[in-house]
């Protein structure tokens, strides 16, 4: 009997790299009101030429509107994906940070997990995160079980 097909309803685009670009552009636009190649390159730690190549690709695929020497604008499809990726990142970060993990570990783990999580699993983790945030006694109990009691 074949295994049940995994239900996948997230907006996983192509590769983690593409998702990282769309997330970064979304975050820049949300924070600054615009996204420039130089800012994207700086935040991703890569060359402006590499960013320009990927932006041209994302433009051709309909996720961005790009005019040379101007900022980048997300299309509705690009915006939707950028928001979904940012949501995954935020939920995973809040959940792991709530247990007192060091920020570097949280960042590294979230960067890996955010590209491989289904919407169903994200919904479960969101529910858990919200319940833990609303119930500090339960969170404290779980931290104790992990041996990771946060110092006051």
Written account of the structure:
The chain has a two-stranded antiparallel sheet with strand order 1-2. It is elongated. 64% of the residues lie in helices and 4% in strands. Helix 1 (16-32) packs across helix 2 and helix 2 packs across helix 3 (48-60). Residues 1-11 have low confidence and may be disordered. The chain is mainly alpha-helical.
Write the layout of secondary structure elements.
Blueprint: H1 16-32, H2 37-44, H3 48-60, E1 64-66, E2 72-74, H4 76-97, H5 103-113, H6 119-134, H7 136-146
Antiparallel strand pairs: 1-2
Helix pairs in contact: 1-2, 1-4, 2-3, 4-5, 4-6
Give a summary of the structure in a few sentences.
With 152 residues, this protein is mainly α. It has helices spanning 16-32, 37-44, 48-60, 76-97, 103-113, 119-134, 136-146; strands at 64-66, 72-74. The chain is built from seven helices and two strands.
Describe the biggest sheet? 2 strands, antiparallel
Structural class: mainly alpha
Q: What kind of oligomer do you see?
A: single chain
Q: What is the correct CATH architecture of the largest domain?
A: Orthogonal Bundle
Q: What's the total number of strands? A: 2
Distance between the termini: 53 Å
Give the strand line-up of the largest sheet: 1-2
Please give the domain count. Answer: 2
Radius of gyration: 18 Å
CATH class of the largest domain: Mainly Alpha
Low-confidence stretches: 1-11
Total helices: the number is 7
Annotated CATH topology of the largest domain: Arc Repressor Mutant, subunit A
As a percent range, the share of helical residues equals 55-70%
The overall pLDDT, averaged over residues, is 88
The percentage of residues in β strands lies in: under 5%
CATH homolog superfamily of the largest domain: Winged helix-like DNA-binding domain superfamily/Winged helix DNA-binding domain
Q: What is the molecular shape? A: elongated
SSE order in H/E notation?
HHHEEHHHH
């Amino acid at each position: 009997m074949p295994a049940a097909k995994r239900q996948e309803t997230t907006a996983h685009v192509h590769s983690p790299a593409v998702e990282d670009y769309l997330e970064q552009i979304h975050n820049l636009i949300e924070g600054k009101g615009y996204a420039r190649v130089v800012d994207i390159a700086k935040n991703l730690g890569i060359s402006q030429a590499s960013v320009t190549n990927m932006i041209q690709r994302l433009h051709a695929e309909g996720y961005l509107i790009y005019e040379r020497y101007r900022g980048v604008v997300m299309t509705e499809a690009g915006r939707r994906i950028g928001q979904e990726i940012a949501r995954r990142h935020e939920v995973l970060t809040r959940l792991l940070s709530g247990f007192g993990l060091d920020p570097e570990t949280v960042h590294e783990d979230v960067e890996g997990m955010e590209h491989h999580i289904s919407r169903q699993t994200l919904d479960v983790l969101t529910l858990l995160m919200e319940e833990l945030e609303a119930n500090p006694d339960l969170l404290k109990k779980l931290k104790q079980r992990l041996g990771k009691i946060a110092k006051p």
